[in-house]
Amino acid sequence: MKSRRALGRSTHHPFHLPWLGAGDLTDNELSADDVVRKTGWVFNNETGDDLTLKEFVETGDKEVRLFMRLLRLEEFPTETSSLVEIGSGIGRMTAAFTQRFRKVTACDVDSAFLERCRQTVAKFGRIDRLVTSHVADGKSLSITDNSADMAFSYITLQHCETRDALSLVGEAIRVTKPGGVVVLNFRTWVKGDVLLVPLGFLVRSMWRMPVVGGSLSRWRWSTRLGWQANRLKPDIVLAEFANKLDKIQIFHSAKRSLTVTAKSEFDLLPTNRINPSHWWLVAQVS
């Protein structure tokens, strides 16, 4: 596996900097609970010092159950299927996936996270079902074509530069077998983005500053702003990939309307308990 440090602090993608900072901490001889607490600006919204890895993983277990139900995936034959998870982090949801799927390939931009992911799954999931894959360039997967039954990504694509996010969508489709399913989460525009997106650009620029930039990329408020890297409307994604997909479903929050003008066939499904700024693409690979 290529070293995480090979990605380097000189990366042209400043939105990787918080991940690299958190990766440095996970490289240290910290307990699993310490990793969750000390990297909270990356992995969770908890502000206290008492969160444990067990509690952290339990939030992932709950969300896996929730999304399988909300996205109408409960009938998917997980016990005989393989899953590729794009953006696994240290395994918050990965552990639950290994309890359901025959094989899980956890992918992340930071190899130190993947080592911790293995530890998390060994403790709370099925380590015999786990494979890890380093996304060294942040946009392509080192996985064979047509090798997975499902590709899944949650709160990852929104943290990528637009072109990289679309590249990962293409990669999700590439690695999924014909007839398999992609389940991908995106963030779209809301009113507050008029301020958030420009502020995000400004903060990412500040992360590049010598001396203070590294520290700034480890502060909670800074990462929350700096990660406002893209907003992808369904029309943008469908324009590029609809010809590779069948049975396209777009799930969005029932609390807001979502306009889609794409010429391709799709079902637009307002759904409770989805974040108003999020939408999901669930589709079968042609």
Give a description of the structure.
This protein is α/β, with parallel strands linked by helices and 286 residues long. It has one domain (4-190, 231-285): Vaccinia Virus protein VP39 (Rossmann fold), CATH 3.40.50.150. Helices cover 38% and strands 20% of the residues. The chain has 11 helices and 8 strands. The chain has helices spanning 17-27, 32-38, 40-43, 53-70, 94-100, 111-124, 162-175, 193-207, 212-216, 220-226, 234-241, and strands spanning 82-86, 103-108, 130-134, 148-153, 176-187, 245-253, 267-271, 278-285. An 8-stranded mixed β-sheet has the order 3-2-1-4-5-8-6-7. α6 links the parallel β2 (103-108) and β3. α1 (17-27) crosses α6 (111-124) and α8 crosses α10 (220-226). The protein is globular and about 50 Å long. The model is unreliable at 1-12 (pLDDT under 50).
- Helical content class: 25-40%
The top level CATH class name = Alpha Beta
Report the CATH architecture: 3-Layer(aba) Sandwich
Report the biggest beta sheet as strand number plus sense, adding barrel if it closes.
8 strands, mixed
Supply the number of helical segments: 11
Strand content: 15-25%
The CATH topology turns out to be Rossmann fold
How many separate structural domains?
A: 1
Mean pLDDT score, rounded?
A: 89
Spatial sequence of strands, sheet with the most strands: 3-2-1-4-5-8-6-7
Helix and strand sequence: HHHHEHEHEEHEHHHHEEE
